[in-house]
Design goal:
This protein has 144 residues and is of the alpha/beta class. Helix 3 runs antiparallel to helix 7 and helix 7 packs parallel to helix 8.
Length: 144
């Protein structure tokens, strides 16, 4: 089992928890969240809260344990990342994907890993030299 800290985007959380495709049990993610090993950027939480399902309920119950606030300090590269990777991340104002990549870049000294099933996020991470894993690889790494 690894000791990575993961910055999750909505695509991976949907794959991991949503009833139709769940790869992991919510209690496994809860354990990682309580241990400080899963971080969810506030724009990702906002994206998920627009839905009404099991994942929204999980976020509502556990966000305090795993929320990662996007601040002026930790998103200083947001404009550059949004511009440089508009082809991969899109240009929707307030989108969560550029924030996830930006936060991972900011915390790269800590070697945090992006958890994403979104090909655009993965491409931006590859170009920015940021580690990322898919939800399937995450399950293998964490023995879920």
């Amino acid at each position: 089992m690894s000791e990575f800290v993961y910055i999750a985007d909505s695509s991976a959380l949907i794959t991991l928890i949503s009833p139709k495709r769940a790869l992991a049990k919510p209690r496994d993610l809860t354990k990682l969240a309580k241990g400080g090993r899963i971080k969810i950027a506030d724009p990702v939480a906002r994206e998920i809260r627009r839905r009404d399902d099991k994942l929204k309920g999980w976020i509502d119950r556990h966000l305090k344990e795993c929320e990662l606030k996007a601040t002026n300090e930790n998103t200083v590269d947001l404009g550059r990342i949004s511009r440089d990777h508009v082809y991969y991340l899109g240009d929707k104002p307030g989108a969560a994907d550029p924030v996830v990549v930006c936060l991972a870049k900011y915390y790269e000294d800590k070697e945090w890993v992006v958890l994403s099933d979104d090909a655009g996020v993965q491409a931006a991470c590859l170009i920015e030299n940021i580690r990322y894993v898919t939800s399937a690889a995450f399950c293998r790494l964490e023995s879920l």
